[in-house]
């Protein structure tokens, strides 16, 4: 069931989303070769706590896992796509790309976003993948206007990704966001334009293209969380929480 938000509820989601954006901004200046993904997690959690908020993923039990998630962020390196479990043994090295996904809850409202960072100098190939994935996110956001349908977002993302020679990862999707981290409707990164749930003012959704250089087929590591590309190809992930308004999409995960 899609939950339409009031102006006050959107303000609540805006507040938590702003903290998500702050975390991602702090990490932009922090990510460097030699750090562990656990260090990123600690940094992120410190920013969240400083704002008197809670990390939304910590303790969360998603539908695909019976265990509770043990960290504040997901940190997925290179061929890892999403849900990378932060670890004291995973060290970032020059040339890696690392996708960080952050969720925050404040006063019962959630915000959710992700960004893929270069670690030091990265290859032209990696830069192009990150650029196309971020562009695909914005192509999707542009379609998030009242009167359009979920499929208009999906097909805009898919079209941009595939016309650049990449594949969309189909096993994970975007979602509604509100008093829960995952609400209806699902927002796939592939599908037919003009189909699916009608978008109306007051919907708040997370759009999150996950893009692979290769086939986009994924598997999950024995840790039960970390999703990686089966063919070992690089993957990137960008996400924003947005509100659908009569003045167009409003990106909430900004400072
Ligand atoms: N941030 C993810 C999403 O965008 C959810 C992470 S699930 C967790 O939907 F279990 F890893 F927290
Ligand atoms: Co999300």
What is the strand and helix layout of this fold?
Elements: H1 7-28, H2 37-50, E1 54-55, E2 73-77, E3 80-82, E4 97-106, E5 109-118, H3 124-142, H4 150-163, E6 167-168, E7 174-176, E8 183-187, E9 204-207, E10 210-212, E11 218-220, E12 227-229, E13 235-237, E14 240-245, E15 248-251
Antiparallel strand pairs: 1-4, 2-4, 3-12, 4-5, 6-10, 7-8, 7-9, 9-14, 10-13, 11-12, 14-15
Helix pairs in contact: 1-2, 3-4
Structure commentary:
The protein is globular and about 45 Å long. The strands form four sheets. It has a five-stranded antiparallel sheet. Strands 1, 2, 4 and 5 form a four-stranded antiparallel sheet that branches. The chain has a three-stranded antiparallel sheet with strand order 3-12-11, with no helix packed on it. It is 27% helix and 26% strand. The model has no long low-confidence stretch (mean pLDDT 98). The longest helix is centred in the N-terminal third of the chain and has 22 residues, at 7-28. It contains four helices and 15 strands. It is α+β, with helices and mostly antiparallel strands. It starts with 6 loop residues before the first helix and ends with a strand. β7 (174-176) and β8 (183-187) form a beta hairpin. α3 (124-142) packs antiparallel against α4. The protein has a single domain (7-251), classed as Alpha-Beta Complex (Creatine Amidinohydrolase). The relative contact order is 0.19. The structure holds 2-amino-4-trifluoromethylsulfanyl-butyric acid (MF3) and cobalt (II) ion. Residues 112, 175, 206, 208, 239 line the site of cobalt (II) ion.
């Amino acid at each position: 069931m899609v939950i339409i938000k009031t102006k006050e509820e959107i303000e609540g989601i805006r507040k938590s989303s702003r903290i998500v954006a702050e975390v991602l901004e702090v990490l932009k200046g922090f990510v460097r070769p030699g750090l562990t993904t656990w260090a990123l997690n600690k940094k992120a959690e410190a920013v969240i706590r400083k704002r008197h908020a809670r990390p939304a993923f910590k303790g969360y039990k998603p539908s695909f896992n019976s265990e509770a998630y043990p960290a504040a962020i997901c940190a997925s390196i290179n061929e890892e796509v999403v849900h990378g479990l932060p670890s004291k043994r995973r060290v970032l090295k020059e040339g890696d790309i690392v996708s960080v996904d952050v969720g925050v809850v404040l006063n019962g409202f959630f915000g959710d976003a992700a960004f893929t960072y270069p670690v030091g100098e990265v290859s032209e190939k990696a830069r192009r993948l990150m650029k196309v994935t971020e562009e695909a996110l914005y192509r999707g956001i542009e379609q998030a206007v009242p009167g359009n349908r979920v499929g208009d977002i999906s097909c805009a993302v898919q079209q941009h990704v595939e016309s650049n020679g990449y594949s969309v990862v189909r096993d994970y999707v975007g979602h509604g966001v509100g008093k829960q981290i995952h609400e209806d409707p699902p927002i796939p990164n592939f599908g037919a334009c003009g189909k699916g749930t009608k978008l109306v003012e007051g919907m708040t959704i997370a759009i999150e293209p996950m893009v692979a250089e290769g086939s986009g087929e994924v598997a999950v590591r024995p840790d039960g969380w970390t999703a990686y590309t089966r063919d070992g190809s690089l993957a990137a992930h960008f996400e924003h929480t947005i509100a659908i308004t009569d003045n167009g999409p409003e990106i909430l995960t900004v400072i």
